[in-house]
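anyone seen this seq b4? input:
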Amino acid sequence: MPGRLPSGSDFPSSITLDIIPPPNPTGTSSITPSDPSSNTANIIPNILLLLHGHGSPAQTPFTNFARALNLPHTACLSIRARTPLPFDLHGYHWADDLLFDQDQDAPAADPNAGGVEKSMKMLVEEVIRGVLVGKCGFRAGEVQVFGFGAGGGVAMGCAQAFETATDEALGGVVNIGGTVPPLPSEYGKRSGKFKTPVLTLYGSSKSALTTTAAREVKNKFEDAEFHCWREKEGDGMPSSREEMLPIMRFWGRRLRAAAPEGAVEVG
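predicted toks r here
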């Protein structure tokens, strides 16, 4: 059974996020988070979590991106990292301890250097298990995660932690330039590869995804796809239809359509 659209009151007050309802056939939001009793509120077959990169200055950085995606039958959550950058550096980060590169006078290039366990546990336990599955009734396979940079690493970490805790795979992860973080020790160890499908995208030059980092993704995930954006420097967000195409194809194979009104799900 598809889940209902979450409302802001479903989440702990410590979590800052925007809830973007799925579009109706005309392309505008069909229901509002404050109206969970709407007739369409219980027929959302997909929900997509959007995790920003390191130090994003916006309050909820991917809200406009979520609206622009306009994915049918899909609600989106644009989630902000909890921890502000120090020294009046405007923005937020996912790391437990933000480490600085003294030579560059900037945060360490490796977003996992300071650990991201707290962020992973917040997303897995409070957002996915606590609200989406526990309160709203979504199944694991109906939950997708998109992460950019450090958010991509956290997204893959969430997939690992969720599967280890529940033995269920999420619907999929889209990772732009992120690297796999260590699994928090409290989740224990898991034999075999994780089954959550992962699409990793990266630039053809100056990418944070090294050969070693790509091998780690392959070693961790059974269904790992890679796409190199040709003639793109670094791991920036997609900026054209061509760059979005592999992501839309990935979602096209995995996002579910809403059941016709009156239909009964079996199994």
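The CA atoms of residues 204 and 230 lie 5 Å apart. Helices lie at 63-69, 117-133, 150-166, 211-220, 241-254. kinda curious what u guys think
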